[in-house]
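Q: What would this chain look like folded?
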Amino acid sequence: MNPIATILFSTAALAASTAHSAEVELWRLDCGEIEVRDLSLFSDTYNHVGEKRTLTDSCYVIRHDRDYMLWDAGLPAALLGAKLDSKAVLAPTLARDIPTQLAEISLKPEQITRLGISHNHFDHVGQAASFPQATLMIGAADLAQFKADPLPFAVDPAFIKPWLDGGSKVDAISGDRDVFGDGTVTILSTPGHTPGETSLLVRLAETGPVVLSGDVAHFEEQFQNRGVPGFNSDRAETLASMERLTGIAKALDAILIVQHDAKDISKLPAFPTSAK
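A: My prediction, written as structure tokens:
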């Protein structure tokens, strides 16, 4: 093939590849709830003293053409049907596990090829081991904490044993990551709650951009009052990440979903309906 023909062929191939726009679909799963008897634990500025609230524990499935990604893995399946401990400050329970919900949208656990984890706390990795075939995508700094001695708050290596043992693939992330290489799904670096905390930007054709917060904030009011949980790893980084997420939401006119805020459930369709 002569040089001119080669250039024309390459240009045509590039045009063909960019002409295809991946179909992206998003489902919100119920991955448990946590009854908080003292909401002031989540604010170092003395907000919410004496308040109680039930926090949602949400997970998400993203379809990118024929690839499926799970974002966060919720509370442990051992909490299925657990009665709320009336004496506990934080009382978690789980009504349905992830595989049961996946079956409602005709998905099998083995079809999940990527498992994106916002951070390493037990309420976000609890059912991760149900997906050992998936590549674990997690902030490198959070992955390192699973091997720390002593272990940080709410971190339990047992929940990601398939990956720590070396039998399953790990993608330790630093900075932002374009998951599928086409800008439709981007893991955002938003440290502060934990050193490797991340959030997720999903660009949907009909709904528009959606930002999933991880635990940058636990409820919407934190964006306004700048209260930070005392157990966060870095206060300044938390505030910077709050600024980043609200800035992205404003710039892209995106829907910002605070994953633990029950009021945010209505921002996306009720499961098993998806957002497209």
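The longest strand covers residues 24-36.
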